[in-house]
Amino acid sequence: MAAAAAAAVGGPQPPQPELPAPGLALDKAATAAHLKAALSRPDNRAGAEELQALLERVLSAERPLAAAADGEEAAAAGGGGGPGAAEEEALEWCKCLLAGGGGYDEFCAAVRAYDPAALCGLVWTANFVAYRCRTCGISPCMSLCAECFHQGDHTGHDFNMFRSQAGGACDCGDSNVMRESGFCKRHQIKSSSNIPCVPKDLLMMSEFVLPRFIFCLIQYLREGYNEPAADVPSEKDLNKVLQLLEPQISFLEDLTKMGGAMRSVLTQVLTNQQNYKDLTSGLGENACAKKSHEKYLIALKSSGLTYPEDKLVYGLQEPSAGTSTLAVQGFAGATGTLGQLDSSDEEDQDGSQGLGKRKRVKLSSSTKDQSIMDVLKHKSFLEELLFWTIKYEFPQKMVTFLLNMLPDQEYKVAFTKTFVQHYAFIMKTLKKSHESDTMSNRIVHISVQLFSNEELARQVTEECQLLDIMVTVLLYMMESCLIKSELQDEENSLHVVVNCGEALLKNNTYWPLVSDFINILSHQSVAKRFLEDHGLLVTWMNFVSFFQGMNLNKRELNEHVEFESQTYYAAFAAELEACAQPMWGLLSHCKVRETQEYTRNVVRYCLEALQDWFDAINFVDEPAPNQVTFHLPLHRYYAMFLSKAVKCQELDLDSVLPDQEMLMKLMIHPLQIQASLAEIHSNMWVRNGLQIKGQAMTYVQSHFCNSMIDPDIYLLQVCASRLDPDYFISSVFERFKVVDLLTMASQHQNTVLDAEHERSMLEGALTFLVILLSLRLHLGMSDDEILRAEMVAQLCMNDRTHSSLIHHIPENPNPKSGIIPGSYSFESVLSAVADFKAPVFEPGGSMQQGMYTPKAEVWDQEFDPVMVILRTVYRRDVQSAMDRYTAFLKQSGKFPGNPWPPYKKRTPLHPSYKGLMRLLHCKTLHIVLFTLLYKILMDHQNLSEHVLCMVLYLIELGLENSAEEESDEEASVCGPERCHDSWFPGSNLVSNMRHFINYVRVRVPETAPEVKRDSPASTSSDSLSSLHSSRRPKVLQRENSGTAQVFSLVAERRKKFQEIINRSSSEANQVVRPKTSNKWSAPGSAPQLTTAILEIKESILSLLIKLHHKLSGKQNSYYPPWLDDIEILIQPEIPKYNHGDGITAVERILLKAALQSRMNKRIIEEICRKVTPPVPPKKITAAEKKTLDKEERRQKARERQQKLLAEFASRQKSFMETAMDVDSPENDIPMEIATAEPQVSEAVYDCVICGQSGPSSEDRPTGLVVLLQASSVLGQCRDNIEPKKLPITEEEQIYPWDTCAAVHDVRLSLLQRYFKDSSCLLAVSIGWEGGVYVQTCGHTLHIDCHKSYMESLRNDQVLQGFSVDKGEFTCPLCRQFANSVLPCYPGSNVESNLWQRPSNKSVQDLIKEVEELQGRPGAFPVSISSETNLSKEMESVMKDIKNTTQKKYRDYSKTPGSPDNDFLFMYSVARTNLELELIHRGGNLCSGGASTAGKRSCLNQLFHVLALHMRLYSIDSEYNPWRKLTQLVEEMNSQQGNEEQQPEVPILYHDVTSLLLIQILMMPQPLRKDHFTCIVKVLFTLLYTQALVALSVKCNEEDRLAWKHTGALKKNACDAEKSYEVLLSFVISELSKGKLYHEEGTQECAMVSPVALSPESMEKYLQDFCLPFLRITSLLQHHLFGEDLPSCQEEEEFSVLSSCLGLLPTFYQTEHPFISASCLDWPVPAFDIISQWCFEINSFTERHAEQGKALLIQESRWKLPHLLQLPENYNTIFQYYHRKTCSVCTKVPKDPAVCLVCGTFVCLKGLCCKQQSYCECVLHSQNCGAGTGIFLLINASVIIIIRGHRFCLWGSVYLDAHGEEDRDLRRGKPLYICKERYKVLEQQWISHTFDHINKRWGPHYNGL
Q1: Which end of the chain is more exposed for a tag (fewer CB within 10 A), N or C?
Q2: 857, 845, 717: which is closest to 773 by C-alpha?
């Protein structure tokens, strides 16, 4: 088929005469059908030619981009009708032709039916949400699209969700990358068997049309590309061309989505070389095509790694697959002409000429295939398409098209080969790109699909030299940024390193190439080829050496650096990614014996590279001072392969170790790093800025440590185990610069170190030795033991969350190693060492995550301070671990004091490393230990407890690892090599411990106290008396063997080195540099040193015993325990010695020493018998005394400070507690006083600012600190019990019809439609939405003090979390957030008691009094006319209250600004606060008591303020509802006279609670109790009647008749007015006169469910109807008169409250069941007033029966408000919302969020939804919550709170299986709802405490 197509395409046809376009356009379908028929004939030559001609014309590339060649006009020249018209036309033609005359859509459907694809292959771009399942993945890069993931079964697997960074493709169905068990339902079954064969004619047209179409596309691409002058494509032009081509590429992309059948056609077309040849070579006379071809050739020119001109050098050599050298380089090296790199990357040629030569020659043997270097040659469309894709810097559309084709296997192979062929070109383009980040991502997007497949990677490696290409390309890339290394010998160094400041490294540009390399090395077959190929290994080591010694730090000695370079980030990243990760990849394939050969290869070439490096930097034996590099990748390669060889491959270590000289060199630089770490921590590098600390931290940080510090320490351990121990030990102390300190003399002088650094450097040196000797990470621990040790170390520092453990435990960087955090072993080890602490809440509101904490036995047995020190990035973590250890010991009663770090038993050493222990048994170390013990005992300066601790640790290590048995004769044998020193006889620590040293010769400054003794006969000279043995004539010659020569560490070390070097250098003429380099000579100003001799007469054992006395502070404190209990020597493991301080450590060591040798035991007993008092220090100089005193004084000061702080904290705590109790005094009435003497005492307030207390007065009022906030919580109450769920499908929507706010709104607007506005505004309350809630912390202050406080806040420059301009502040005492001050009304404290005396007036009299009092306008003790401070404040606070909420929540009247509005708003504020308090009490008053809400309540003061303002508006007595409640109006009919005017609201439609508040606030304050009760009684009658009316409307017709009848019979009984049956029947008969019960359609019945009417259920209905009113009234009474609320059962709430309110007559007996009607107390005859009320209703229902009825049925039983119910699993929310489109712009928002109160979907920060500069979340928070919004951020799983102009991140209510949040879904583990947290969130919302509990608030500037 393909051949036919190719033939048909043929050569170039002569251009046909143009056909009239319009005619054709009409007839596309017909033409297509005709052509299809023609082509279906056996002889299709004619048809083919015709089609050819048509395509030639339709697709001619001339039109659209003809002008592009002239540069900028490209945009203008859009062809026919504006840009793109021609292309549109062409696409239409193509679609028609493909479909062969049919409809294009039908054609697509037909092709899809033949899709055999068993792969998903869905391609996605960056930011797409995908899944990765480690249980199912074979390759670590495996990923699945959400659909395939959810269709498959991954329950219990280790999977996570992630946001793709670079893009990717779904691997479902690809068994090379994942296990089949993980395939989804769609891709499990499909196999080619059941797919029918594709009919020949279906795709016939495609095979003819597509080659032309693709060629046309390529022409466009050639056409549009201009080789720019500066070799930097101008982005603008490229993007223009791409925009023009958008439709064509999209068309191709759509074709790929048609499935397998179409893909195979495309593959044929793209890979067919004949097609390509015919179309591209047959350019003929087409000028335009010629031009584009020329452009193509120019573009090709720069594609090779070399420039064409250089070809001359090796022109004769025809590149062939067999060429074994990189000819360019071979030639270049030989002739001295550098085979130059791409000229744009030219490096300055000055000094690097020679160096370049050397490097290049090195390379020449590596690569096998010349073609890497060559200019590209293209043989198919695919190759050229990829070429242009690269040239245009990987446009997303093209990338997606190329990837969409991958499910076609044939294409996949072809494409991979093409990709590899272009690899060098990709690198060049990447280096030049401006957008290297985007480009990197797109490259990896492609390569990860190709190289993750092992089979494919192997094939390409074999057929296309993939490895050679990659390594060469990487090498070339790095060669462009090399600089000369300044390490060691600056002038003559030949070594080059990468320059970390270059963009290439700084921006991680090399990342895609390195990541591909790591990816292919993870395949065993590929890695094996690499490890077997010597040439490749050499090249690779060459590459690694570019990083060896990069980013060199030089210590600043004089002034601080001006500019801190941050290149170290780049350096560490480069070493980790480019060196370490490939290393781990290779190591993972060297696990078994059979792979020994590989290790030998690597080690061999590594050592060669190291040797070259030492030569290049001119290294002999001393590192240059004051410089350090943290980057030694060659050392680390060597170390890691050694470790692997011994651990897994059973290789003999010595067979892969070099000679001694090399080992000495090898140890120098890693040791230098360890010493520098100590220097950095001692602040010796402080002038280099913070970045040097950063490097020291990064070096040990968890992601780097196992590729950096671990190999370094291992390498040092290997060196130490093979080198002379004395040499090694002295090297260590010399490197750490503390040699001079190690003298017995009390004074010394250090030539290389300042005194203040000595101590910490000594600590550093000893700690290093301890780590070196006790660390077993590579010396015999198994993987599980290592994991356990790492985990214990992390947990001991701090409790950790699961994810931070995973983060802090250095994972094996190679994903295939098996120890992946989260793997099985990780979890099992974790459960073995740690306990899980579930997530908890702290009262402060801060939320804890689930934490792991070490088990007790871990502290007891496994706490390892050495491991902790090794792994801490911050020094404070070591302290933290010790503190936690101390706490554990105290708590478990194991040790009360301050313990020392415990000594931990080590895993046995691997036999290969036994030599390491020789360090512990060498004289040098023993001398050091002896000296230090002596100095500590004598209190010399600069020694700390830490030093002692380490010294003892080393002694103990030595005892633990001593030779099997100690021969007692050993001491007598003294070979010639031992006589140079009379310190110790042998090298075994056990015997040396008892060796007494009598005299020591020391070199001291002449001023020292020791200079005055003669030398006795036998002396040992001071160990490290001086560095300058060369400067001092050796007076004491050998003959006097009694007094040995002075033993100097450094001299010893140099001597050893000399011997070795002389032994190993066969050439006699090798020059050895003088050993003492001048850098070390002492400054000339040093004071003269003289020799003094000290009498010592101690052994290590005696020093230890004296130390015990010194530490315990008692004489003779040590008594050998075995004298009492001989058992101790038999079973040495004694738990009491495990934990303790220095005393315990000394005892433990003495016991071990006694155990190991009988002699020691005897000597210890002897020493103890002598009981020598500890030698007093000979003389302490004044200076020393001073420093000692200083230390002691500091310690004491610290303790004192601690004590003070603790005392202060407890004082503050008790103060806070009392402060909270001295709350607003109104509700704390001292009752006893009141009963005893009723004199009026004024309330006294404390001002928290000035601290004075006194009453609040007119002139100087006091106020309560309050927070005013608008709230819509009340409006969220619903009347159904079912909580609303968050919608998670399109069907579930939440409508706010049934919320309290909506119902009240509807009611008000209904009333306003039919009744007079002013009267409507008195009939209801507002504030269900946007009501103002007032809360206080209970503290008071003078208002003038507050003003000055605000002034000071205003001038405060510190950034506060609140806005002072808006009046916000924090309470000066308890720091609670507030924004206003509520004036306290000057009044008496016991006022309530005066007014509570029961009066004996009749109800009638009281009613009169109430009416009169209300009538007095503004009868207020303060006359408003005379402005006082108090009244001003009252006004200003009223203004604040009004401004708290938005205008729309205050103005409900039809006439804006009418006083009725304010009136309504004011009493509604009171209502809101009462209702909210009720909700805080759980919606009822059963619990009674003055709840916490009461304690901090400010309702009393609020009432005063409101009443003052309400009384400014007098209600016209005509309309005062009080009249209608208490008097009969004579002429009922007069009302109907004024028809034209809207009537008043009938009294039965009034909201009774609102009436109560109006009545009370209209009365002069303070109110009298009997007036209050009177008002309540009157209102209760109205309420009860309303209940009856509502009940009657709910009944059906028969019930009504029955009730009417039974009630009428009882009407004349004595208590008729208190019988609900009688009253109900009367109501029914009254209302029957109107039309209320008429026209009751059937549908009405359905709406109001009839009540099943038993007397009990009716009684219950009436009680439930009245309860809300009784609750609010009782609360009000509680606040106004300070009476406690009684507690009761729920059933009896009604009766208890009614008696508490005085509605129940006192003599009421509770024998028979309680009846609500008995509370009635009618002010006027019941039947008269009821009929009057009913008459109003009837007259309204005449006209509006429906509405009349709706208004009567009031829903009074609101449930408590709740947030929406959330689903159990977060994924359900995420999957629905993260793809949901925004309703405004129909795009998927970047940050979607959903409101948890009402379920609205909003865009966070979305500009599309911005309205008048408010973003959507802020806007929604104002509309939904009156300024409070609670949003769940879908992409982050966190909840954000918006409160007014501030916002805060609240935290997450979804936690993973380990009780942790996953903010931003970074880990992507499954998350589950945490009910407790959600409860807390809801609680904070309901109680309005967000402002108080959450601390981190910031302004949002309306941008959320």
Answers
A1: N
A2: 717
Segment 1260-1284, tens digit of pLDDT = 889 999 999 999 999 988 877 778 8
Amino acid residing at 348 = D
Give residues with Cβ within 8 angstroms of 909, minimum separation 6. 776, 779, 780, 916, 917
Where helices occur in 175-312 by DSSP H, the ranges are: 185-189, 204-224, 235-256, 260-271, 273-281, 287-301
Amino acid letter, residue 820: I
In terms of C-beta distances under 8 Å and separation of at least 24 residues, what long-range contacts does 1671-1674 make, across chains too? 1671/1478, 1671/1484, 1671/1485, 1671/1697, 1672/1471, 1672/1474, 1672/1475, 1672/1478, 1672/1553, 1672/1556, 1673/1553, 1673/1556, 1673/1576, 1673/1697, 1673/1701, 1674/1485, 1674/1700, 1674/1701
Distance CA 899, CA 883 (A): 9
CA distances from 1542 to 1454, 1539, 1546 (A): 13, 7, 12
Specify the DSSP class assigned to residue 1618: G
CA–CA dist 1104, 993 (Å, integer): 10
Q: Report which secondary-structure segment, H or E, holds 711.
A: helix 709-722
* Bridge partners, residue 1431, by sequence: none
**Residue 366: predicted pLDDT:** 40
Distance CA 984, CA 924 (A): 10
- Cβ atoms of 209 and 93 within 8 Å: the answer is no
CB of 1837 within 8 A of CB of 1852? yes
Say if residue 564 is exposed, middle or buried (CB neighbours under 10 Å; 0-12, 13-18, 19+): middle
Amino acid at 490: E
1891 contacts 1369 by C-beta, under 8 angstroms: no
The angle, 0 to 180 degrees and rounded to 10, between the axes of the packed helices 45-58 and 2-9 is 60
- For residue 619, give the nearest of 672, 655, 580, 557 by alpha carbon: 672
Q: Which residue is it, tokens 């942790």? A: 1860
Q: What are phi and psi of 1847, to 5 degrees?
A: -145, 160
Q: DSSP letters along 1128-1188, please? A: HHHS---GGGTS--HHHHHHHHHHHHHHH-HHHHHHHHHHHHH-PPPPPPS---HHHHHHH
Over residues 602-658, the pLDDT tens digits come to 999 999 999 999 999 988 878 888 899 999 999 999 999 999 999 888 888 899 999
> If residue 1624 lies in a helix (H) or strand (E), which one and from where to where?
helix 1620-1632
1771-1797 confidence digits (pLDDT tens): 999 999 988 988 877 888 888 999 999
Partners of residue 482 on adjacent β-strands: 498
Predicted model pTM:
0.81
Q: How big is the chain by its Cα radius of gyration, in Å? A: 46
How far apart CA 1573 and CA 1698 sit, in angstroms, is 11
Q: What share of residues in the chain are helix, strand, coil (percent, to 5)?
A: 55, 5, 40
In order, the DSSP letters of 908-942 are PPPGGGGGGGGGGGSHHHHHHHHHHHHHHHTT-TT
Averaged pLDDT for residues 1760-1767: 93
List, for residues 1536-1588, the tens digit of each pLDDT value: 444 457 788 888 888 999 999 988 888 887 788 888 988 998 899 899 998 88
Q: Give residue 1275's identity as a one-letter amino acid code.
A: G
Other Cβ atoms closer than 10 A to 1569: 21
**1021, 1023, 1024, 1027 alpha-carbon torsion, rounded to 10°:** 50
Token pair listed for 1414: 């209300």
Residue type, 1494: G
- Collapsing DSSP to helix, strand or coil, 293 comes out as helix
Distance CA 531, CA 522 (A): 13
Crossing angle for the helix pair 1693-1700 and 1655-1681, nearest 10 degrees?
A: 40
